[in-house]
Amino acid sequence: MILEYLLFAIGSGLGGMFRYAISLDPLFRQAHGAIILDTVLVNTIGSFVAGFTASLSSRAVTAETRSFMVGFAGGVTTYSAFSLESLHMLHSAHWFNTAVFLIFSVTAYVLSAFAGFVAADHLEAP
Question: Considering the entire predicted model, what is its pTM?
Fold first, then answer.
């Protein structure tokens, strides 16, 4: 049990470091129209990892591996940043950009989680 918590903490730390590195990249940090690319990218990756991990059966991965992957997904996703960026756009009266950002983002995250489920199912196929 202690090992699972340790691996969760390591995964969370690495996920957070990955997220921070993406946020420093000027290519992703710029707001391209209505889409804030770094937030969409890391949340999409985190959603995929979460969906992939949730779909894996206990026979496919150990509890320790699952702890690491859940920690990484949690560390890399930035729903707090997503919320704040959405509120900032609303406060700045960028209604169209906010709508596009919210629709695009939520769609990408749900589809990415679904893709993770599908990928894990194919991994486990006999």
Answer: 0.75
